[in-house]
Write a structure and sequence with these properties.
Structural class: alpha/beta
Shape: globular
CATH topology: Glucose Oxidase, domain 1
Bound molecules: oxaloacetate ion
Strand content: 35-45%
CATH class: Alpha Beta
Number of strands: 14
Oligomer: single chain
Largest sheet: 10 strands, mixed
Number of domains: 1
C-alpha cells in the first residue's frame, strides 16, 4: 500500500522515518474475506453491478427504495442526512431511464451518504466518477426518469438475488457486494 513518509534529522544526526498518512485509505474489510468468514450469513449480490462512483470501497447501514422508472423517492431521500448509510434502490433492473445523475449524487455527497447501489441505470457518468461516494448500477443511459411521486421507502427488496432490508449492512469493494444482517 503506498505511504507518505517524512524523514526528520534528529539532533544526533540519526534519520527517523515517520509515517504521516496513508495515501490510500485503510479499509477494514474485503468482500472475499467477509464471504469466507461469514458463509451463508453474508448474502452475496450477483455479479453484474458496475462501478460508477468515486469511492470504490464503501460500506454502511442500508436504507432502501423500490421504484419503477421514477426516481422521486431516490431524489427525496438522498437530499436528507445520510449519516454514512448506503441507499439500495431496486429499480426492477430497468435500463431504459436513469434513476441517479450528477445533481442528485452531489446532494448525496453533501448529505453524508456512503453509497448508492441501483438495480437499474445511472447517467452523467463522467461526473459520478469524480464524486466522493460509492455508486454501483447495472448500466448507464442518457434519459432521465419520470418523477410522479411513485416508489416506496425502506421496504425489503431483492437485488442480484440477495434479499436486502433496511438496517442491514452493505459492503462493497472491487470484487463485489454483500449484505449482512447485524446481530
Ligand atoms: O434528475 C434526475 O433525475 C437525474 C439527474 O440527471 C441528476 O441527478 O442530475
Amino acid at each position: 500500500m503506498p505511504r507518505t513518509y517524512v524523514v526528520r534529522l534528529m539532533p544526533a544526526g540519526v534519520a527517523r522515518v515517520v509515517v504521516v498518512c496513508e495515501a490510500v485509505a485503510m479499509t477494514s474489510f474485503t468482500t472475499p474475506d467477509l464471504s469466507d468468514e461469514l458463509g451463508g450469513a453474508a448474502r452475496v449480490v450477483a455479479a453484474g453491478f458496475l462501478d460508477f462512483g468515486g469511492r470504490e470501497v464503501f460500506d454502511g447501514p442500508v436504507r432502501t427504495v423500490r421504484c419503477l422508472e421514477d426516481n422521486s423517492r431516490v431524489k427525496e431521500l438522498l437530499a436528507t442526512p445520510g449519516e454514512g448509510a448506503v441507499l439500495v434502490v431496486d429499480g426492477a433492473g430497468s435500463l431504459t431511464v436513469a434513476l441517479l445523475g450528477d445533481m442528485i449524487a452531489e446532494g448525496a455527497v453533501a448529505q453524508g451518504w456512503a453509497g448508492v447501489v441501483i438495480n437499474g441505470a445511472v447517467r452523467d457518468v463522467e461526473i459520478l466518477r469524480t464524486l466522493d461516494i460509492g455508486v454501483r448500477a447495472l448500466g448507464s443511459i442518457p434519459r432521465r426518469s419520470d418523477r410522479q411521486g411513485r416508489g416506496e421507502v425502506d421496504v425489503p427488496v431483492t437485488i442480484g438475488g440477495a434479499r436486502v432490508e433496511p438496517g442491514d449492512h452493505l459492503y462493497a469493494d472491487a470484487t463485489g457486494i454483500l449484505v449482512t444482517t447485524p446481530a
